[in-house]
Design goal:
Blueprint (H helix, E strand, L loop, with lengths): L5 H6 L21 E10 L2 E10 L5 E8 L3 E10 L2 E11 L7 E9 L3 E5 L3 E8 L2 E9 L4 E9 L5 E6 L4 E7 L17 H6 L9 E8 L2 E6 L1 E4 L5 E5 L8 E8 L1
Antiparallel strand pairs: 1-2, 1-17, 2-3, 3-4, 4-5, 5-6, 6-7, 7-8, 8-9, 9-10, 10-11, 11-12, 12-13, 13-14, 15-16, 16-17
Length: 254
């Protein structure tokens, strides 16, 4: 699993990481939509596309992320009946000097923990009541691990994410009452695609303002979001001074 730096994450609005609340309304006659695709535009040109493919039960079969001129990442999910048994992540780099990779994780599911295991790497997703509490990455070769810890308020909104390198993200300005934000607003964390596959949330509502701190470094940033008439996010932008830089989100009706 490749990790992009903070600056790149901000430029593409959490392109790899993200995913937040799953709000499904009980209102009668309201169209229910399922997230399908996001397109990232920089200076009016498409630079990144993420698309999700589902089976007949509306469960995720694959997630394909095309980061133009860099790589295509494909995540394939294998099921036994309705149970996830393995996930394969394939990285195909455009640059011939980079080595393509394919890693298959076997999946072990307990009541409050999901474990993804490969030969050299292991990921633990600890959760409760449908929300992720922490993730741990174990490296077999060095017998070390890194961790992300999530804390929420009494409304189940994410208020902080603490990483193993000392970075702390704090969140505010929640878009209460809205539907799922496909890229998680300003939330930053790894494994958002995996959270989506396992139908896990990080925050009930999406935060649109975040403060990052690490040592003496601190930064605050916000996102501008546009919704359709039913509250689904259709456009997001972290650079209000450049209307040519934005993310477009698309859905399919169920």
């Amino acid at each position: 699993m490749k990790k992009l730096n903070l600056l790149f994450e901000l430029l593409i609005t959490i392109v790899i990481f993200s995913c937040s609340s799953n709000h499904i309304s009980d209102a009668k006659n309201e169209t229910v939509k399922q997230y399908k695709k996001s397109l990232v535009y920089n200076n009016g040109t498409t630079t990144y596309v993420k698309e999700i493919f589902y089976n007949q039960d509306h469960k995720i079969l694959s997630i394909i992320s095309n980061d133009y001129s860099y790589r295509t990442e494909t995540i394939n999910v294998s099921y036994l009946g309705k149970t996830i048994i393995s996930i394969t992540e394939i990285d195909d780099f455009d640059n011939p000097n980079y080595t393509d990779s394919s890693v298959t994780y076997t999946v072990s599911m307990e009541s409050n923990k999901i474990t993804l295991m490969s030969e050299a790497f292991q990921v633990e997703i600890n959760h409760s009541n449908g929300y992720v509490n922490s993730t741990k990455e174990y490296y077999t070769s060095t017998n070390t691990f890194s961790e992300h810890l999530f804390t929420r308020d009494s409304n189940l909104n994410l208020v902080s994410n603490t990483t193993g390198d000392g970075s702390i993200f704090t969140y505010s300005n929640f878009d209460s009452g809205r539907k799922e934000h496909p890229f998680g607003g300003v939330m930053e964390y790894f494994y958002s695609d995996y959270f989506r596959i396992f139908q896990l949330n990080v925050s009930k509502n999406t935060p649109l303002t975040a403060t990052y701190s690490n040592g003496g470094v601190m930064d605050t940033y916000s996102e501008i979001v546009e919704y359709d008439g039913e509250g689904y996010v259709i456009k997001s932008n972290v650079d209000p001074n450049n209307t040519n830089n934005y993310v477009e989100h698309q859905y399919v009706e169920l």
